Amino acid sequence: MTLEFIGYAAGRQASEIIAPEGPIIQPGYLREVARTHEGAGFDRVLIAQSASSPDGFVLADQVLAATERLGVLLAHRPGFVAPTQLARKFATLDAFHPGRIALHVITGGDDADQARDGDFTDKPTRYRRTDDFLSVVRRTWDSAEPFDHDGEFYRVRGAISDIRPAGRIPVYFGGASADAIRVGAKHADVYAFWGEPLAGIAERIEQVRAAAGRDVAFSVSLRPIPAATEAEAWERARDILRLTQDRAGEFKGRRDSSEAVGSQRLLEAAATGDVVDERLWTAVAKTTGAAGNSTALVGSYEQVADSLLDYVRLGVGTLLIRGFSPLADARDYGTLVRLVREKADAVTVGA
C-alpha cells in the first residue's frame, strides 16, 4: 500500500531537549533539514504555526525551492487572513511548485495564544468560523466563475481568483473535540490525530468516518526513538526524558493545553502507564503536560516499524514522525521509512 511520511521543518533547531540558539531564522539550517528529509524518503515536512512564529508561507517557499520533490504541509489558523486571500496564497505556491503544497488547518485550542494575535473568540465560535472559512477557500480554488457567499463570518460578492490550483490542494485537519470532528469530517481530505494508543485511534477513526459519510484519510503523529537494539533505544529514551524534565517548566508555561481535548486524551493515556500498547511511551507527554505531539515509540528499528504499521492496519495512511533531535533524527529516520515501506505491502488495512 502507499504510505505518506511527513517530517518537521523550522527556521532553527529546537525541541524538548534542545534549547534554541541564535537567530530564529537560520537559512542554512532550514535548507539542510529540508534536504535531509528529502534524502531520507519523506514526502512532506510540516511547517507549524503559532502566534509568535515566523511567516510560514516564506518558510514553505524556501523549503520548496531548496528541494526537488519534497512537499510542505503548511499549518494555518483561520481567522486572521481572508479566506479568498488564503486560497490565492496557496494557489500561488502551487503554481511555482505543482502538487507540493498542502494546507493543515489548526483552529486553535489555546485561548492565550489566540489572544496574542487579537482573537478572543471561544473554541466553539472558532470552529464555526473555520467551517465558514474552508467553504470559501475551497470554492475560491474550484470556481472558474465569480461567486457570492453569505456565511456567519464571511461574506463575499463576485469573488474570483485569477490563479487556481491545477489539481486539488489537500486539506489536513487537526482537532479532537466534538466540534473539531463535525467540521473536520466535512472538509478534511486527511484527518490528523496525535499519537494515542491504538484503541483510541480506532475509536476516533470511527467517529470521523461516521460524521463524514465519505472517504477520509487519516494521519497519526508520533515521536519514534529507534536504535539498533531495544536496549539502546530505551537508554536514549531515558536520556530524552531526563533532558525534558530539566526544561519542563518552559513547556508547561509556554502553552495552556488544559482545554485542548487532544492533550487531555494523551494525558489520560499517560495516566494508565508510561508504556502502552507494548512500546507507546507516554512519559514525555506527562512531563510536558501534553502540550503538543509528545508520545513516542521506543524500540529497535524493526520493532518501531512494526508498531507504526499497527496504526496503518487501523486505516492510517499518513505517518507524521519527528524526532527529539530534529536534524539528526530526520537523517536517521531514513532507515525507518524504508523498513515501513517495505513491510507495508503485507499489511491488511481494517475496514
From TrEMBL:
UniProt-listed InterPro entries: Luciferase-like_dom, Luciferase-like_sf, SsuD_RutA_monooxygenase
EC number: 1.14.14.5
Signal peptide coordinates: none
GO molecular function annotation: alkanesulfonate monooxygenase activity
Swiss-Prot/TrEMBL keywords: Flavoprotein, FMN, Monooxygenase, Oxidoreductase
Residue ranges occupied by any Luciferase-like domain in the UniProt entry: 7-316
Any one of the GO BP annotations: alkanesulfonate catabolic process
Protein name: Alkanesulfonate monooxygenase (EC)
